[in-house]
């Protein structure tokens, strides 16, 4: 169970970054090109962006600079993400980040000069634009928040420094934090970040599970002050930038980027905290009853309803499950899945220094790169289906849209990924009528898909909102404050049904999304859209699938409301979210009923 070093991992378990750059020499050539192209852009266009024709010509040339920046950033950051002990990759990443900051500073004049033109000039530029239309519309939209060109250039030059809090967080978490083994009963167990989050949180042995949680939390606590300092720096920076750009609050600033309204944001948090809480408390009580626990603690919330029925799944077996489960999306989608496996898009490895959790990176018109740590669990199949949802989404929009039109709002971006989890579960429900199997699939949906997105990330979002409210009033946060806020949030949701300890309060230390603006709440937003679209597919079939594909290929040519509308969903009201919460409650009710029936049947045998 001890994690290996990256160098000892078989190549077939790792991703292949050569589809971005076959060699580092190719990266360095593009770095030289970035220097040349950015200098040429300044020479050709600075002070000349006064006509619609020049504006569009400049944006045509700028597109290549952004493409190279995207390729280099992805290549370097992906290399670091799988091994934070590799100093060569860290140095390469830092070198590219410095160049990126320099180039971004040089080209910052583009937006400020365009925004400085009369609206009539911008409207004419939009009218004659092809691939630049939506970019120009966004510049026009951002015009009230543009700063003096010198200020914009300074902010761009400081981009590497502005991103430092996230780098500090990752280095503390993935490089410096070393976990000693812990003891449960008379046995010693190894411990690590991914070992805890991918294994021990789901461990059926209560002594091992709770022992791991205590030991894990003890090590986290040693780093609480540096982690809090990094996070406080992050939110103070966001507040400063919001104020500089004349936003009334940091919320307004961060939601502006997402093209989401305050109502859309607060609705997700408020309704789920109020309406979903009673259902999840029922689920917690059911887990306590099934497992005959003396009390229900935070460390017990991720145990399976039926751990003896959790089948081991190999990587080759996962491919068969996913291909069949997502076949409803069509043969082209299935072919992408096959290519992801054979083309080494996926990093399955479990090694020291690797980022935790899972993510998918999709450089423009390159294949995607999916990170996870494979643990032979069905939950890994759902995670991989989730990340392939991102891959399929960006394959579709990259193929159909300009580079400027693939920066999809985070409010929608988790919908394609969570849709795939739902399609997988619905496929499994159709394959086997056995009540125990049905209960297992339903519990996977509740304890994985919905728990992860509607509970874990939503509670993080509720806590995060409290942090930003403090910062918006001119305050700051420290480790004590952050733990208090997290504990209050957890207690508010779980009530008397789950014991929330001081160790549970340290959950705020575990989420990288806090360094990505208002991201955590968007998981529930995306899953709300996905649930409604999936239910349409179940009822209406091919027509709903085609609507979903239109939404996937639209990229950022529409805002979240428009993208959802393409999929046949109206998210301007509470109805989709309330219906989704009711749907979760129905699943929990069926799990309770099936459990009672199975217990009754067992008593009669």
What does this structure look like?
The protein is mainly alpha-helical and 605 residues long. The mean pLDDT is 95. It has 25 helices and 5 strands. Helix 5 runs antiparallel to helix 6 (133-142) and helix 20 crosses helix 21. A hairpin with a 2-residue loop joins strand 1 (182-184) and strand 2. The strands form 2 sheets. The chain has a 3-stranded mixed sheet, with helices on one face. The protein has a domain at 6-162: Butyryl-CoA Dehydrogenase, subunit A, domain 3 (Up-down Bundle).
CATH superfamily caption of one domain: Oligopeptidase f, N-terminal domain
Strands across the major sheet, in which order? 3-5-4
Radius of gyration: 24 Å
- Encode the helix/strand succession as letters: HHHHHHHHHEEHHHHHHHEEEHHHHHHHHH
Task: List its traits.
Butyryl-CoA Dehydrogenase, subunit A, domain 3, three-stranded mixed beta sheet, mainly alpha, globular, 605 residues, two-stranded antiparallel sheet, 5 strands
